[in-house]
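User: I've been trying to design a sequence by hand for this structure and keep getting stuck. Would you show me what you'd pick, starting by listing the structure so we're on the same page?

Assistant: Good idea, let's start from the same input. This is the structure you sent:
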């Protein structure tokens, strides 16, 4: 899933489109924020794009994973602007999103993102790629191990594997399931965007797995659920405050 830096190529009209859509988004977002009882009625008239914009707005304002990542990006000198750095678009296949390293833009696949929770997971996953892009010199295209590392981190830290993990833990008691899920997801993400064999993708993931799986920045821990993410956000804010006082 996701992580399609070389597949997403927004056309030149995207900027204009986004501005237009942003206007309707603002209008409707206020209705949503006020808990308008007719929201369900109105939402049936919204286009995929308007729904995508609304869900994005809510995710950016309320999701603790996303809030932490946005703070961390800002702290690293890569402040994210919602209008400039996110683009709701129709995508091919069942891709949910991607990070376009050439434009530093996160593409959200409005035709495939099913609900608010899904939107939050996709935004978190792609923001981890954006964070990696900001803090390190990532060679997305020429070094598959760089991509593998970021995919391991995105799968590990975004909650992609947490729900599945809980279900499996409950049903089978598999302690190592989280690691196995992260590895499988990272391999699938690479195969979705690179024309390489499964063996090459597996080798790249296995080579970087230990160090990248244990790199929890900017969370400081694996945020298994929203409560963990909230604590991580609070810790990050405190850390930020501490360093800025020096
Ligand atoms: Zn990815």
């Amino acid at each position: 899933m996701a992580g399609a830096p070389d597949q997403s190529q927004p056309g030149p009209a995207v900027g204009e489109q986004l501005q237009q859509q942003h206007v309707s988004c603002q209008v409707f977002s206020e209705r949503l924020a006020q808990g308008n009882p007719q929201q369900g009625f109105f939402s049936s008239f919204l286009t995929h794009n308007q729904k995508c914009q609304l869900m994005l707005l809510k995710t950016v304002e309320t999701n603790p994973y996303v809030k932490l990542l946005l703070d961390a990006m800002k702290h690293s000198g890569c402040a994210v602007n919602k209008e400039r750095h996110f683009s709701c678009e129709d995508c091919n296949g069942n891709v949910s999103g991607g990070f376009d390293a050439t434009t530093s833009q996160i593409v959200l696949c409005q035709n495939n993102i099913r609900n608010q929770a899904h939107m939050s997971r996709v935004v978190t996953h792609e923001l981890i790629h954006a964070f990696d892009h900001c803090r390190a010199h990532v060679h997305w295209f020429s070094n598959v191990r760089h991509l593998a590392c970021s995919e391991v981190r995105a799968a590990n830290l975004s909650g992609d594997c947490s729900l599945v993990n809980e279900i499996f833990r409950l049903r089978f008691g598999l302690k190592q399931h989280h690691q196995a899920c992260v590895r499988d997801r990272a391999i699938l993400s690479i195969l979705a965007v690179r024309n390489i064999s499964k063996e090459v993708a597996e080798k790249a993931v296995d080579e970087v797995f230990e160090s990248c799986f244990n790199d929890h920045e900017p969370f400081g821990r694996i945020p298994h659920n929203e409560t963990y993410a909230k604590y991580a956000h609070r810790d990050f804010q405190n850390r930020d405050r501490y360093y800025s006082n020096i």
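That's my pick for every position. To get oriented when you compare it with your attempt: DSSP finds eleven helices and three strands in the chain. The chain has two domains: 2-60+82-127, 136-237.
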